[in-house]
Design brief:
Its cofactor is Mg(2+). Its EC number is 6.2.1.1. It holds the Pfam family ACAS_N. It catalyses: acetate + ATP + CoA = acetyl-CoA + AMP + diphosphate. The chain has 655 residues and is α/β, with parallel strands linked by helices. The chain has a domain of 124 residues: GMP Synthetase, Chain A, domain 3 (2-Layer Sandwich), CATH 3.30.300. The chain is built from 24 helices and 30 strands. The structure holds 5'-O-[(S)-ethoxy(hydroxy)phosphoryl]adenosine. 5'-O-[(S)-ethoxy(hydroxy)phosphoryl]adenosine binds next to α14, β20, β24 and β25.
Length: 655
């Protein structure tokens, strides 16, 4: 970490927005001034940009921290805000989704068409007994039906739990169980790198009898989109084809009003323990901040821009900046099913050219992999339509930032590096592209209306030029309202550390430069960030020890040029397996096991077979030392180890 900090300290380039960009930008200095003068009035004004069936009179209720209520006496319908109101305003013919499937098939869907589809689906869901507060699991590829499903659930005041299609049957099962989902919406399969990857079989496995599994009991129906055309098993009475029921349903459906604090979704994310937490978001505050930030940070002009956020709807970025923010703003956006490099490594740039994308929002890991392939590939395409670039998910190193600016943005498009979390619901820290002089590698400043600080362990401000812990010092509209079914864990994880000050503890290390701008330094807990995806060391360790051959395991996140961090596992193997198998065979088997248990993204890059793990006298594994080994550094201070010789043995075994 220290070499990284030195490197960042030497970074002092700055880029001001061009005059013409600044002149047309939606986000202005005035927003900061208004927010500073009266934070609550500022957020109330942003909220009033939405349609309220019943206007709110209260803004923030913070009488029982950390449980906030925003716009509590107001009522709205989230889907109505994303759909009907645009049609009613005469914009029904505007394209909402420019969808492209991996094989190259296309669909253009207008706001009027998407509204009809969501209304039909809402009628189908009502017929299946889904109503306010019911949970619906969504396990779909990046197809228009995924967006429609989220909106139809929201329209009914029900709660969706989107599970990333790359997660395994086991991960899906635990998420269905935890939320007690009544319905699962899935597809037969989706396209991935030229092949159909099956989804329905994973749902069948997740719902299979497992000695009284909750999933099997709570789920009444499975609604299946035909996409992959792969063969699937069918459970009569439980399973329904989308194409049989949705087109046949009525397209008349009036959106009912729901309270601002009605839950909108649960999204599971990795924490520091083995069990993923169901982050709970509600309606009015969430939609307000997602919509506002999408507008001012991405400088979204819905009449003229073609917006593309490359995130999958299985992650929070796909919730706030594919589904809710852009559709509430009435944007036209690209939705792409495939991967960046299939069938050729220029696929994304081909799409930018083809659709005339003006705003691109993606992750540093993608930029770094393009950088590795070289500029010749993007240079083959006309990227001159791009006028704003965004980054999200992990710190972006200055080299990648500069490459993004020069090669993709033609040295013109401002870059917004946006920091936020599943828990924060929407962007918290970012430049405003028409206002801020941007700095490569720094997320910089809180967006208007957000109050943050970097503090010492005791909660005191670190002062410019120093590092510490990132905190949010005032409640914000899109803040998580809790962890599903576990209020204690919510309080403990985020609010206990700075209880005295009432600060939200984000789990990120950060530094303030001499201007007071924020530079992120990565997580300070046992959460890893691999290609912008959050993974928990403990979760992967418990998967590995579930493998028959394994006696014990420790997992660390080691820095990786492309993925930011990579999963590295140190594993003690049972003697009988050591005798019967090669180390390569065991490593391979453990890697695929983790892929099956959690999902391919969690598969360790390296599996090192060792005899012992470094432990303190109280038996705690010292992952810091293993990280030194994994990153090829000299091993740090070992004096608190129970057996100080163990690290030299491990280092030798790894070599
Ligand atoms: C990291 C993704 C530095 C951070 C929206 C945070 C970032 C975690 C940035 C949340 C950024 C996200 N700069 N770090 N611009 N954006 N992070 O919940 O460690 O998947 O705590 O939300 O990603 O990841 P999550």
């Amino acid at each position: 970490m220290s070499s990284q900090i030195d490197h960042l300290l030497n970074e002092n380039r700055k880029f001001a927005p061009s005059e013409s960009f600044a002149a047309n930008a939606i986000g202005t200095v005035g927003l900061y001034e208004h927010a500073r003068a009266d934070r609550e009035a500022f957020w109330a004004q942003q909220a009033r940009d939405l349609h309220w069936h019943k206007p709110f009179t209260e803004v923030l209720d913070w009488s029982t921290p950390p449980f906030a209520k925003w716009f509590d006496d107001g009522e709205l319908n989230v889907a109505y805000n994303c759909l009907d109101r645009h049609v009613e305003a005469g914009n029904g013919d505007r394209v909402a989704l420019l969808w492209e499937g991996e094989p190259g098939d296309e669909r253009r869907i207008t706001y009027a068409e998407l509204t009809d589809e969501v209304k039909r689906l809402a009628n189908v869901l009502t017929g299946l007994g889904i109503g306010q507060g019911d949970r619906v699991a969504i396990y779909l590829p990046m197809i228009p039906e995924a967006v429609a499903s989220m909106l139809a659930v929201a329209r009914l005041g029900a709660i969706h739990s989107v599970v990333f299609g790359g997660f395994s049957a086991d991960s899906l099962r635990s998420r269905i169980d935890d939320a007690g989902a009544k319905l699962v919406i899935t597809a037969d399969g989706g396209y991935r790198k030229g092949k159909v990857s099956a989804l329905k079989p994973a749902v069948d496995m997740a719902l299979a009898d497992r000695n009284g599994s909750g999933a099997q009991e709570s789920v009444e129906h499975v609604l299946v989109v035909k996409r992959g055309e792969n063969d699937v098993d069918w459970t009569e009475g439980r399973d329904l084809w989308w194409h049989d029921v949705v087109p046949a349903a009525s397209k008349d459906h009036e959106a009912q009003a729901f309270p601002a604090e009605n839950p909108l979704f649960i999204l599971y994310t990795s924490g520091t323990t083995g069990k993923p937490k169901g982050i709970l978001h509600t309606s009015g505050g969430y939609l307000t901040q997602a919509t506002f930030t999408n507008k001012v940070v991405h400088d979204l002009h819905p009449e003229t821009d073609v917006y593309w956020c490359t995130a999958d709807i299985g992650w929070v970025t796909g919730h706030s900046y594919v589904t809710y923010g852009p559709l509430a703003n009435g944007a036209t956006q690209v939705l792409f099913e495939g991967t960046p490099d299939s069938p050729h490594p220029g696929r994304w740039w081909e799409l930018v050219e083809k659709y005339g994308v003006t705003i691109l929002y993606t992750a540093p890991t993608a930029i770094r992999s393009f950088m590795k392939l070289g500029r010749a590939i993007p240079n083959k395409f006309d990227l001159s339509s791009l006028r704003l670039l965004g980054s999200v998910g992990e710190p972006i190193n200055p080299e990648a930032w500069m490459w993004y600016r020069e090669i993709i943005g033609n040295n013109l498009a401002p870059i917004v590096d946006t920091w936020w979390q599943t828990e924060t619901g929407a962007i918290m820290i970012s430049a405003l592209p028409g206002v801020t002089e941007t700095k490569p590698g720094s997320a910089q400043v809180p967006v208007p209306g957000i109050s943050i600080d970097v503090v010492n362990e005791d909660g005191s401000h670190v002062g410019n030029g120093n590092g510490g812990l990132l905190v949010v010092t005032e409640p914000w509209p899109a803040m998580l309202r809790g962890i599903w079914g576990d209020p204690e864990r919510f309080v403990e994880t985020y609010w206990e550390k700075f209880h005295a000050q009432g600060f939200y503890f984000a789990g990120d290390g950060a530094r303030l430069d001499d201007d007071g701008d924020v530079w992120f330094l990565g997580r300070v807990d046992d959460v890893m960030n691999v290609s912008g995806h959050r993974l928990s060391t403990t979760e992967i360790e418990s998967a590995i020890v579930g493998h028959d051959a394994t006696a014990e395991a420790a997992v660390v996140g080691a820095s990786d040029e492309t993925t930011g961090q990579a999963v590295v596992a140190f594993v003690i193997i049972k003697q009988s397996y050591l005798d019967a198998h090669t180390p390569e065979g065991l490593g391979h088997s453990i890697r695929s096991w983790v892929g099956e248990q959690i999902g391919p993204i969690a598969r360790p890059r390296d599996v090192y077979i060792v005899n012992e793990l470094p432990k303190t006298r109280s038996g705690k594994i010292m992952r810091r030392l293993l990280r030194d080994v994994a990153e090829g550094r000299e091993v740090g201070d070992t004096t608190t180890l129970a057996d100080t010789a163990v690290m030299s043995v491990i280092s030798a075994q790894v070599k």
